[in-house]
Amino acid sequence: MKIRKAIWPILVAAPFMVAGCGNSQNASASGDAAGEQSSFKASYTADGDLITPENWREWVYVGTPVTPHGLNNGAAPFPEVHSVYIDPDSWEHWKNTGEFRQGAILAKELTMLITDGANEDGSTQQVSGRGFFQSGVFSGLEFTIKDAEQYPDEPGNWAYYSSGHAPGVEYPDTMEALPTQACNTCHEVNASEDDFVFVKFYPVLKAAKGG
Ligand code: HEC
């Protein structure tokens, strides 16, 4: 797997272990055997860059928009299958309130399609029919985080991070927040009804919305 080496283990057995390390936890779950509530929290370098959260594939999966190169003149802006996840604490909060909590983290991981025998539109014939099938090649990792304290000047208090897009791209250990116009603006304009998140494309979030 093309994922970075762990900085911290995702499951920290006891909160004091984190405190003792002189760094905050890296979007990891903390909580003890007594059932203390876990907390997913982004952490940052001294320069304010995001320490790439870990284990997003084990968060709650919410939906998968698909934009094949074959349907986008050979160059989809987000190639090609987009799997979106939300951190478990924010999922709970969403189910209860229908809102994104302060600290909410959503991940979007991109995957290329299988190309062997592909039609012009990028589809292939597989056992289940003609359609779009993910290859094992990841092509990008993005996060958006809502935090009024961390991002007081960003519209909606959402900041955006990306590994960049390329088949087999190596994910960096840290990511710099991207300029507002590069990411936030499109989200603000096109997903204003759901606090900058494209809930309309995520059936799992739509079905679970509380409040
Ligand atoms: C042209 C509009 C547009 C721009 C620019 C854009 N996005 Fe998005 N983004 C979308 C759409 C539409 C979705 C819904 C899922 C999908 O189609 O991939 C989305 C979904 C996401 C998600 C999943 C959570 C959510 O908010 O729905 C993340 C994370 C994300 N984008 C990060 C970024 C980053 C990082 C950038 C800047 C590099 C960026 N986006 C720029 C349109 C945009």
- Strand percentage lies at 15-25%
Number of helices: 4
What is the makeup of the main sheet? 5 strands, antiparallel
State the oligomer.
single chain
Number of structural domains: 1
Q: What is the distance, rounded to the nearest whole angstrom, between the alpha carbons of the first and last residues?
A: 38 Å
Tell me the series of helices and strands, N- to C-terminal. Answer: EHEEEEHEEEEEEHH
**What is the CATH superfamily label?**
Cytochrome P460
- Note the overall shape: globular
Q: What is the CATH architecture assignment?
A: 3-Layer(bba) Sandwich
- List cofactors, ions and other ligands: heme C
Helix content: 10-25%
Rg: 18 Å
Query: What fold name stands as the CATH topology?
Result: Chalcone isomerase
Task: Please characterize this protein's 3D structure.
This protein is an alpha+beta fold and 211 residues long. It has one domain: Cytochrome P460 (Chalcone isomerase, 3-Layer(bba) Sandwich). The strands form four sheets. A five-stranded antiparallel β-sheet has the order 4-5-6-9-10. A two-stranded parallel sheet has the order 1-2. It is globular. It binds heme C (HEC). Heme C binds next to strand 5, strand 6, strand 9, strand 10 and helix 3.
